[in-house]
Amino acid sequence: MVDEVAAKEGRLDILVNNFGSTDVKTDLDVVNGPSEDFFSIVNTNLKSVYLPSKAAVPLMAKNGGGSIINIGSVGGLYPDLSRTAYGVSKAAIHFLTKDIAVQYARQGVRCNAVLPGFTATDAALNNMSQAFLDLFLKNVPSTAPAARRTSPMPSPSWPATGPPSSPARSCLWPAASACPPRCTAPI
């Protein structure tokens, strides 16, 4: 896909790697989750960033630079009682983001990560149990007042969660050419 866009447009300036998947029925803790599912989730999520970035870096470098933005997750920063594979895959994406930033900064290629918290998409709300949501929202740092963090169901207007458009809006600054060339902080 990266090569198709570059061929059609004549260059590639911005790449947003926005994918993350898990199976809440099998992405459990280390002992109870099936090993094959663990490695499948990690492999799928990591490849979704590694392969497009590998294709994009040479194209961006050839044109004097560009911006790669990887959608990570607070799930890659904070331990969880389940979703081990998802957390490990997002932590690996955070590390890969830093590696790409360091390795290709001299060629003008910037790489940043946006780390959303719980994003209130239909898929998330329909596939995660209320018990999981309560535990997640209780343990992940939030700027929301305590009373809101214990509400029974997140909503897009609740500060502990974000609407599906939040990660996209967070990509605007690192995509801008004004972003410092060695900016690697998670956003």
Q: How would you characterize this protein structure?
A:
It is a single chain. This protein has 187 residues and is mainly alpha-helical. Helices cover 46% and strands 11% of the residues. It has helices at residues 2-9, 35-62, 84-104, 122-127, 130-139, 146-149, 166-170, 172-175, and strands at 14-17, 66-71, 109-114, 118-119, 161-162. The strands form two sheets. The protein has a three-stranded parallel sheet with strand order 1-2-3, with helices on one face. It has a two-stranded parallel ribbon with strand order 4-5. β1 (14-17), α2 (35-62) and β2 form a beta-alpha-beta unit. α2 packs parallel to α3. The longest helix is centred in the N-terminal third of the chain and has 28 residues, at 35-62. The two termini are 26 Å apart. The model is unreliable at 143-159 (pLDDT under 50).
Structure characteristics:
single chain, elongated, 187 residues, two-stranded parallel ribbon, mainly alpha
* Shape label: elongated
| Terminus-to-terminus distance | 26 Å
Oligomer: single chain
Strand content: 5-15%
**Cα-based radius of gyration, to the nearest Å:** 17 Å
| Beta strands, count | 5
Low-confidence residue ranges: 143-159
Structural class: mainly alpha
Number of helices: 8
Strand order of the biggest β-sheet:
1-2-3
Helix content range: 40-55%
Largest sheet: 3 strands, parallel
Order of helices and strands: HEHEHEEHHHEHH
Overall pLDDT: 80
